[in-house]
Amino acid sequence: MLDLIGQIIIGFFKYGAIINVSFLGLFLVNHLFKLRVKIIDDIMVWITKNFIMAILKGIMYAFLVCAPVGFLVFIPSLQEVIIEYVCIPLSLIAFFYGIYDTWKND
């Protein structure tokens, strides 16, 4: 179970880093070619200021969503199906909602 929690947390930081690096690339292209797209600047500033808080809130929402089905993970025949098709999609949706909620409240 701790291995599963570790994989989820590392996965969230990995996805968060991918989002951050993607917007960093857009930010650099925006400034390199002097495109002056304001939304890219705003998103990059927000991500650099609130990255850790958004990730932590996303993890919190993900665990709150997966808690009701967490007890079913201990049934060996259902373990893989529930983790792959229930817990991971729900936790990813909750993770992105946590990022959106941090964005909305800022």
Can you tell me about this structure?
The protein is an all-alpha fold and 106 residues long. The chain has one domain. Helix 1 packs antiparallel against helix 2 and helix 2 packs antiparallel against helix 3. The longest helix is centred in the middle third of the chain and has 33 residues. The N and C termini lie far apart (34 Å). 15% of the residues are buried.
Helical percentage = over 70%
Mean pLDDT: 76
Termini Cα gap: 34 Å
Helix/sheet category: mainly alpha
Total E-strand runs: 0
Radius of gyration, rounded?
17 Å
Number of helices: 3
Strand content: under 5%
Overall 3D shape: elongated
Quaternary assembly: single chain
Segments where pLDDT lies below 50 for 5+ residues? none
What is the number of independent domains? 1
Report the sheet with the most strands, covering strand number, pairing sense and barrel closure. Answer: none
